[in-house]
């Protein structure tokens, strides 16, 4: 392998884009090549607008090539012997010339029909012993068939043409050197067919390149849309986890303070009640905005800085300040967990406690336990439910609650989606004691997770 090929292979392996070759730009800048390319582009544009114009020009060109021989020809065939036109009426060569040239006007719209019509006319003129310059129309028709027609019909046309030429040279038209005539005529047939096939393959290659460019453009647009959707989903999730949680804490604190102020007959009770109502309205508006941002696709990548295990203490402090009694314990070496796992643990605990505040109220109590085991991490959040005598809040979301199957609650859906990213299992539902709610999630920790330290197993 040469050094250039090795460098190209290395660039491909690294995914590095190789700069395009400057050959096309150099060709357009060249005085002669640039003029040819621009002329070809202009001819294609003119042909697309007036296709009949080029077909008419081809017919007139064949007629013009034939006129000198028709008007001042000596009656000799191209292979040395005199043909038989002197024994025929004078209008016969003109009629055959017109019959050979006119079908070329339809050669691009019906290449097979035009070729076989010209072939029959050529066979008729050969049977009369004539060689006319207009016979070049058969080569033009064969070239058009090779470029635009059916390949199966092309094979039949080439075979028929070769057989007809051999028949004409050997039996129909007097030729002084038949072998030379067959070699020359078959060579022109081969050249016409090869030229048509070459240009046909070139057009197919250019069409494939254009199709590939279109597909790459579509894939780029789709990639941009997917990236935007993923970013919207990430923003929606973070707003729900952070802003929604903080609003829930603020509403709970305001409601508790309003109740306490009302019991003390303080004038601030009404202001605190308005504050709680305003917070609930803000949460409703937040859910509406997140409903616009959120999509089915919810691919998320951890972007630093993100909260982790160490940030659970400040989180629990805020929850306790809202009036919820929380006990917290850990098992194992949680600091050895990866950043993604720590973020998932934090969000699951945050969402579970937010649901407890929302549905059980500040009079409830919750137990939070995070344990690192052999290749797994378990998050268990259990609350005691609404205390006796307290006003009942909305039912906990779950299989029979507002966020069960078919519901639109995003909190528990987010827990399931986060757990699914690490191959986890989620258990949601009422506790076995008959009161309270349980969120139990088991995640598959990355291989780098350290072995758990001795500790109390989860019950």
TrEMBL record:
The keyword Transferase belongs to this UniProt entry's keyword annotation: yes
Membrane spanning residue stretches: 50-68, 88-106, 113-145, 151-172, 179-199
UniProt feature, compositional bias: Pro residues: 388-402
GO cellular component, as recorded: membrane
Domain Histidine kinase/HSP90-like ATPase: 341-443
GO molecular function terms attached to this record: ATP binding; phosphorelay sensor kinase activity; protein dimerization activity
SUPFAM superfamilies in the record: ATPase domain of HSP90 chaperone/DNA topoisomerase II/histidine kinase
Enzyme Commission no: 2.7.13.3
Location of the Signal transduction histidine kinase subgroup 3 dimerisation and phosphoacceptor domain: 231-296
Record flagged with keyword Nucleotide-binding: yes
Catalytic activity, as annotated: ATP + protein L-histidine = ADP + protein N-phospho-L-histidine
Entries under InterPro entries matching the protein: DUF7134, HATPase_C_sf, HATPase_dom, Sensor_HK_TwoCompSys, Sig_transdc_His_kin_sub3_dim/P
Region annotation Disordered: where it falls in the sequence: 382-411
Domain DUF7134: 48-202
Tree of life domain: Bacteria
Name of the molecule in the record: histidine kinase
Organism: Streptomyces phaeofaciens
Lineage: Bacteria, Bacillati, Actinomycetota, Actinomycetes, Kitasatosporales
């Amino acid at each position: 392998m040469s050094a250039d090929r090795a460098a190209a292979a290395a660039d491909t392996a690294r995914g590095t884009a190789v700069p395009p070759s400057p050959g096309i730009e150099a060709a357009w800048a060249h005085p002669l090549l640039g003029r040819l390319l621009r002329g070809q582009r202009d001819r294609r544009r003119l042909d697309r607008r007036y296709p009949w114009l080029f077909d008419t020009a081809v017919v007139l060109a064949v007629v013009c090539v034939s006129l000198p021989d028709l008007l001042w020809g000596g009656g000799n065939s191209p292979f040395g012997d005199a043909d038989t036109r002197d024994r025929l009426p004078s209008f016969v060569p003109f009629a055959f010339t017109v019959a050979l040239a006119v079908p070329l006007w339809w050669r691009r719209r019906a290449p097979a029909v035009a070729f076989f019509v010209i072939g029959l006319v050529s066979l008729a003129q050969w049977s009369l012993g004539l060689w006319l310059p207009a016979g070049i129309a058969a080569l033009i028709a064969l070239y058009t068939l090779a470029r635009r027609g059916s390949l199966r019909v092309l094979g039949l046309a080439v075979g028929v043409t070769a057989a007809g030429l051999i028949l004409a040279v050997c039996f129909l038209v007097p030729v002084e050197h038949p072998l030379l005539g067959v070699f020359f005529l078959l060579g022109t047939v081969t050249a016409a067919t090869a030229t048509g096939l070459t240009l046909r393959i070139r057009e197919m290659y250019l069409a494939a390149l254009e199709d590939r460019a279109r597909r790459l453009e579509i894939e780029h647009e789709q990639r941009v849309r997917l990236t935007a959707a993923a970013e919207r989903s990430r923003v929606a999730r973070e707003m729900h986890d952070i802003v929604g949680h903080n609003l829930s804490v603020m509403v709970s604190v305001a409601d508790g303070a309003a109740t306490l102020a009302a019991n003390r007959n303080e004038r601030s009770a009404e202001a605190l009640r308005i504050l709680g109502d305003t917070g609930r309205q803000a949460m409703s508006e937040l859910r509406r905005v997140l409903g616009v941002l959120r999509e089915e696709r919810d691919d998320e990548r951890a972007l630093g800085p993100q909260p982790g295990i160490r940030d659970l203490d400040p989180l629990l402090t805020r929850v306790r300040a809202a009036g919820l009694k929380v006990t917290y314990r850990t098992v194992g070496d949680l600091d050895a967990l990866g950043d993604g796992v720590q973020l998932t643990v934090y969000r699951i605990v945050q969402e579970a406690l937010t649901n407890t505040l929302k549905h059980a109220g500040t009079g409830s109590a919750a137990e939070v336990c995070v344990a690192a085991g052999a290749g797994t991490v378990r998050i268990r959040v259990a609350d005691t439910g609404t205390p006796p005598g307290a006003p009942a809040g909305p039912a906990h979301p779950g299989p029979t609650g507002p966020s069960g199957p078919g519901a639109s609650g995003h909190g528990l859906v987010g827990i399931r989606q986060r757990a699914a990213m690490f191959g986890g299992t989620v258990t949601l539902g009422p506790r076995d004691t008959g009161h309270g709610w349980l969120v139990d999630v088991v995640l598959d920790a990355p291989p780098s997770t350290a072995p758990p330290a001795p500790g109390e197993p989860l019950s």
